[in-house]
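Exercise: predict the fold of this chain.
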Amino acid sequence: MQKKFVTNLAFLLFLNLLIKPFWILGIDREVQNQVGAENFGIYFALFNFSFLLNIILDIGITNFNNKNIAQNNHLLTKHFSSLVVLKFFLAVLYIAITVILGLIIGYDFRFMKILLILGLNQFLISFVMYLRSNIAGLHIFWLDSIVSVLDRFIMIVLCVFLLWGNVLNEKLDIMHYVYAQTIAYFVTACIAFIIVIGKTEFIKLKLSRAFAMMILKKSFPFAVLVLLMTFYNRLDTVMLERMLPDGAQQAGIYAQGYRILDATNMIAFLFAGLLLPIFSRMLKYKESVEALVKIAFILLMTPAVVIAIGCFFYSKELMGLMYHEHIEESAIIFSMLMACFMAISTTYIFGTLLTANGNLRELNLMAASGILINIVLNLFLIPRFQAAGSAVSSLITQFLTALIQVLIVQSIFKFKINYRLILTLIVFIAGVVLINYFSKGIHKNWMVNFSIMVIASGIWAFATRMFNIKSMVRILKYG
C-alpha cells in the first residue's frame, strides 16, 4: 500500500502541478488584476457563500461512497443509478435554499445573478467529485488524477481567449469568468459520467425512497463534518463583506493573500484524496497504518514548512510580483495565511485517517469548536483590523483544530511517539528560518535570493534526514 500511495501520488502531483498553479497564479490572478479588487472581492465573497451550503449537494455522499466502494467494489453498480438521482434532487434543494438565504441577508439583483450561477457551478463540482469518488474507490488512481485536472485545463483554454485573445468587444467582466467555469465544469462532469458508466452495469436512473433514506442516514455524520469544516474555512470572507463598509474591497484584498494558499492547499487535498480509500481498505483488513501516516506526514510537512516560512520572509516581494494594488495590506494577510498551510497539511493527514476509521463524532466536535472559535475571533478582530483580523482568526483556528486532531489520533490508535521525528522537524524548521533570514541579503535581486533559499532548504531537508532517500527507494521496491 505504501508503494501504491507514493507512485500514484507522484503521478497525481505531476498533473496537478502542471495545471493548477498556472490556473490559480496565472489565470485567476490576472482576472482579479483586470476586474479590480472590489469586483473580484464581490465574486470571492459570493463564491465562499455558495460554498457554505455546499454540503446540501452531497450530504456526505462522496466521502461515504469513496470509503464504501474502496471496501466493497461490487456496490458501485448497485448504488450508482440511485445516487445520481439523489444528487440531482439535492441540487434543486441546495439552489433553492441558497437563493432564499441570499435574499434574507440582503444581496441585490446583481449579487443574486452571480450567486445563482455559482450555485449551479457548485452542483457541477459536487457531481464531478461524486463521480471521482467512484473511480478512486475502485483504486483507478491514474484515471482519477486525469479527471482531477480536466476542469482547470478547459478553463485555462477558455480564459486565455477571454484575457488575451481579443474575443470580447468590452472590458472583461466577472460574469465572463463565472460562465467560463460553468462550461468547464459541465464538460468535465459529462466525461466523468461516461467513464463511471463504463465501469457499471448502469441501465436506467431510478431512486428507491428506502435506499435514499439508508444512504442519507449512513452519510449524515460525514455531512455534518463537511458542513462544520466548510464554515470555519469559508466564513471569513462572507463576514468581511457583510460587516465592513468597504467589505467588498477587503474581501478582494483577502483574496489576494489567500490565492497562493489555495494553490498549495491542492497538494494537501490530493494527499487526502489518495489516503482516504487506502486508509479505508487497510483498516478493513486490520493492517497497520502507522508507517503510511509517517510517510504521508513527512512528504507533506517538509514542503509545507519551506513554503510557509519562505512566503513569510518574501511576502511583500511575492505580492508585488502578482498584483497591481493593495500590496502592503495583502502582504500582511498573505504571510499569516501561508502559516496556516502547515496546520492544514496536518489536518488533511490525521483528519483523513479519522474519517476512514469512522471517528466522525470526534471530528464533528472538533469542527464545531473550530466554528465557534472562528466566529468569536472574527467578530472581535474584523471591526478592529479588517482583513488582517480575519487572517489572524484563520491562523489560530487552523492550528488549534489541527492539534486537536493529532491528539485524537494518538488517543485512538496509540501510535508510538516518534521523538526522533519530532526533534528532526524542530531542527528542520529552525534551519529553514535561518536560511530564509540570511538569504535575504545575498543578492540585490530577490528572485535570486528566493531560488537560493528553496534549493538550500531542499538540501537541508536531506541533511537533517527529513527526506530519507533509502527509505523512499525501499518503499518503491517492496511497498
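Check your answer against the key: The radius of gyration is 22 Å.
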